[in-house]
Model the fold of this input.
Amino acid sequence: MAEHPVLASPVIFDRALLRRRRRRAGALGPATFLIDRVADDLADRLAAVLRRFELALDLGTPGEAVRSALARLGTVATVVATDAISPCDTVRRRPLVIADEEGLPFRDGALDLVVSALALQFVNDLPGVFVQVCRMLKPDGLFLAALVGGETLTELRQSFAMAESEIEAGISPRVAPFADVRDLGGLLQRAGFALPVVDADRLTARYDSAFVLMHDLRRMGATNVLHDRRRAPLKRATLMRMAEIYRERFADADGRLRATFEIVWLSGWAPHPSQQQPLKPGSARTRLADALGTREISAGDKAGPPR
Done:
């Protein structure tokens, strides 16, 4: 019998380049305002879950912001972190497991909680990561993550596209095609999660110029890591025209420029019999027609004129 071919995930991001960019960000002195905000929001969301988690995994989050927020929360006993950067390149405290988000070395049912902040938007096989996380969680374990969404840096994307179309007669991919909110809930269900929830927040940062924004992105380790990026150096004329367009289109009355960051939140639970289950078809005790105050018409009848 012929074996079915194994379909490889498309390579969207250059993961080796991402690691180099994160090392550079650490050397520059990281810009942490966004990850700090997300870590605080993550702790607030966990505070609404009235449960103590004995063993949690911080999956790929840059820096210490999430683990510090969990420590302040006080409901998580032990937090283990994964990072694809070796210990000599990171200031993380232990315990730390050196592992890529796409290949996690944890046994089935080992964890009570998995959290991640601003890391999973750069994986090539997001559905595969979700499957691994669901497998690693104990029954009724929780997955809570924040990803950068598709509206992030829309101003920068539009400005670069207009500048390149004017000067270079073509547009190159510069800002990542982040996951759409509408798709993520379906991916969680397909991975086996129960009670999936997806929502999004929008944050607006303001900058004196597009160049200050781009410097912050370098300090976040969040510059272009697309596999199919243009390899030729960016032309100075294109860069200057981009900055002009950005100021023309996206400046506030005081002259400062807006930069949008969309944060997509997703959560799901590893299945457990105690969780709320959907009702079986035909098990309802109240007719929909009674609830709506209308007359029920059987499938074989035709509706007559209103009375």
Observations:
- The radius of gyration is 24 Å.
- Residues 15-271 form a domain with the Rossmann fold fold (CATH 3.40.50.150).
